[in-house]
Target: Large ribosomal subunit protein bL31B
Amino acid sequence: MKADIHPEYREVVFHDVTSDFKFLTRSTLAATAKESVKWEDGNEYPLVKIEISSASHPFYTGKHKVVDTSGRIDKFQRRYAR
Model:
């Protein structure tokens, strides 16, 4: 790899503001973080606020609903039923 062309990859705390869920992971978004937060281990990390994560996304929380418009699912199942 070439030197000095890659963004810094370090620990960052992501905060899902919808569900007030925080998690620590590694990311290159540390440079864009304007805030920092003290984590459970006592260290201070950059804070990146996001609007949706696995803690608030309907698919992962089980609140996902399949909207069947004009019977598309039934039409598909009839067409390919054996």
About this structure: Residues 8 and 31 are 8 Å apart (CA to CA). The longest helix spans residues 72-79.
